[in-house]
Design goal:
The complex is a heterodimer. By secondary structure, chain A is mainly α. Chain A has 13 helices and no strands. The two termini of chain A are 38 Å apart. Chain B has ten helices and 13 strands. In chain B, β1 and β2 form a beta hairpin. Classes of the chains: A mainly alpha, B alpha/beta. At the A-B interface, α1, α2, α6 and α7 of A face α2 and α5 of B. Chain B: It holds the Pfam family ABC_tran.
Chain lengths: 283, 301
């Protein structure tokens, strides 16, 4: 062991640390998301699947159209519903929530979170950067899916002269709500991921909250119906429905503004405690 | 410089680190030694602000690490090389880390070249050997050109060439005036790399001193002597300044060489049956000093 290393020790002149910019954190999360092969595959397959379910729903009504009553043919109330079929959009909710959750829990699962946190001790900013990237990617994907499933389904139905126009207020609302459903669910997944941190537990909780719990309420009891209106999937369902009968005893539909509020509040109410807790817990 | 002052960390009822204090100075490679479960990793995690201390304080260059909004320019750390996402390429892994701290893309290529992974940059980390992952973790620690570097068991999984390279790297980083803090449970590793040692066992400090001083504590020679006249020889040896332990069949002597003992025996007309020198290695010194501090002793219940 030589001692020359000790005498050679001298204060080094080092470049000043660059300023801590939030946009750099967002860019870093963007790199992380797109450097996984699964990301483009998941987004691509989800888009094709949801648009495919809308095409199949429209095709079924196209095929059955000649057998419908004259009034059903004239009103064609099914047209907007064909653009946003449950099986497609419930799947989208699950996929978006899972990918949102994975952006956080995959770091906990692999232990990468320790490297990440040592590089970025500002943990709240890190969670926010993930939220920004998750919201941006899923809003773009959600908009593509919503416009795509609307366009494809109505193109098929126009063959029976039963399409609705996208400039129709009800259509616009349905497309907007469907575009927002994906980022809302992705942010719910992310918030649950920050809170729960365990992959399987997070995914089970997200599935239960988004898909199972809404089916446990009954529509004919007022308190139960009003609780069910707080579910994101049910709020979305209300927003893509162009007409509902007025409320009467035993029938309590959700209001439109309330349904928008439900979609907006779920991510906020999950991410706020997630941000607070991220600062306190050991990583 | 890393300063740990009265650090205590409990997880539930278990105390991982107990009132630990030490200082790691710049310009040296400081080894952080202790048996498995001694609290080394916990201490490193608290230094990095990943875990909050139950009591006490830790500062890096005078401030708690967590007060920084970005960390790579202050401390470079490799805690566990396996803690990476196997689906990403080495380059993407480093690019994301660099970008989060406002470090340019060019630096990624530089550190990959420095750790010898220039050709593997595009490969997915999942296919890396442990040794390659250690190199990747070291590359990540170097990204921000930090004045303080910490490595937890960095030699694990490295081939002999890698071990030589990493020793040289640590010493040159220290020679540049940086603080280099290196944990290991292998004393032999420290023998070749560290100037200073911080030794802990069961979460408590055992020693914090230059490697030489620690080694001298354990490497004092011991001479065993067998003689039919132990009482006479013991008296003569004690009078000559040696410390003598009397065992049933031999004397264990410290403080005199075999030659000196032989001469004394001759002068006192004491018959010798055996005269043997025992030198304990650094490894044995470490085992001896940390004995009883190990969390899991083989065979003990």
């Amino acid at each position: 062991m030589t001692t020359s290393t000790l005498t050679a020790a001298a204060p080094r002149t080092r470049a000043a640390a660059p300023p801590a910019r939030f946009t750099d954190l967002v860019a870093a999360e963007w790199i992380k998301l797109w450097s996984l092969r699964s990301t483009p595959w998941t987004l691509g397959l989800a888009t094709l699947f949801v648009i495919g379910t809308a095409a199949l729903a429209a095709k079924a009504d196209y095929d059955n159209f000649p057998f419908y009553d004259a009034e059903v043919q004239r009103e064609h109330m099914f047209s907007l519903g064909d653009a946003f079929p449950q099986e497609g959009y419930l799947t989208l909710m699950l996929v978006a929530a899972s990918l949102g959750a994975l952006s956080m829990v995959s770091e906990y699962g692999s232990g990468l979170i320790r490297t990440t946190t040592a590089a970025v001790p500002a943990r709240g900013a890190l969670v926010l950067a993930k939220a920004v990237v998750t919201a941006a990617v899923w809003t773009a994907t959600g908009a593509l899916i919503a416009v795509g499933s609307f366009t494809v389904s109505q193109a098929i139905l126009s063959g029976r002269d039963a399409a609705v126009s996208i400039t129709d207020p009800a259509s616009l609302r349905a497309v907007a709500a469907s575009a927002l459903l994906a980022p809302v669910c992705a942010l719910i997944g992310l918030g649950l991921g920050v809170l729960i941190r365990h992959t399987a537990a997070t995914l089970v909780t997200a599935t239960f909250l988004l898909l199972i719990l809404p089916s446990m309420f009954s529509a004919d009891k007022r308190w139960s119906a009003e609780l069910s209106h707080l579910m994101p999937g049910i709020a979305w369902g209300r927003l893509v429905t162009d007409w509902m009968p007025p409320p009467h005893p035993g029938y309590y539909p959700a209001a439109i503004p309330q349904s928008w509020l439900v979609l907006a509040l779920w991510p906020v109410l999950l991410l706020l405690p997630a941000l607070l807790l991220a600062h306190r817990r050991d990583v | 410089m890393i300063e740990v002052i009265g650090l205590t960390k409990r997880y539930g009822g278990k105390t991982a680190v107990d009132d630990l204090s030490f200082t790691v100075r710049p310009g040296h490679v400081t080894g952080f030694l202790g048996p498995n479960g001694a609290g080394k990793t916990t201490t490193l995690r608290v230094i990095l602000g990943l875990d909050a201390p139950t009591a006490g304080a830790v500062t890096v260059d005078g401030v708690p690490f967590r007060t920084h909004r970005r960390g790579l320019h202050h401390v470079g750390a490799l805690l566990d090389a396996q803690q990476v996402h196997g689906g990403r390429s080495a380059q993407a892994h480093l690019a994301a880390l660099a970008r989060s701290n406002g470090i340019g893309r060019r630096r990624v290529g530089e550190v990959l070249a420095e750790v010898g992974l220039a050709d593997a940059g595009h490969r997915r980390i999942g296919g890396f050997s442990l040794g390659m992952k250690q190199r990747l973790g070291i590359a990540a620690a170097l990204l921000g050109d930090p004045p303080v570097l910490m490595f937890d068991e960095p030699i694990n999984g490295m081939d002999p060439e890698g071990v030589r390279w990493v020793r040289h790297l640590f010493r040159s980083l220290a020679a540049q005036g940086r603080t280099v803090f290196l944990s290991s449970h292998l004393m032999t590793e420290m023998e070749h790399t560290a100037d200073h040692l911080v030794v802990i066992g069961q979460g408590r400090l055992i020693a914090a001193e230059p490697l030489r001083a620690f080694a001298d504590r354990g490497t004092r020679q011991r001479v065993t002597v067998r003689t039919p006249q132990p009482a006479v020889l013991a008296a003569a040896l004690t009078a000559a300044g040696a410390s003598v332990d009397t065992a049933p069949d031999h004397l264990a002597v410290r403080g005199l060489s075999a030659e000196q003992i032989g001469a004394l025996a001759f002068a006192n007309a004491v018959e010798l049956h055996e005269l043997a020198t025992h030198t304990t290695s650094l490894e044995e010194a470490f085992m001896e000093i940390t004995a009883g501090h190990a969390d899991h002793l083989a065979g003990s219940r």
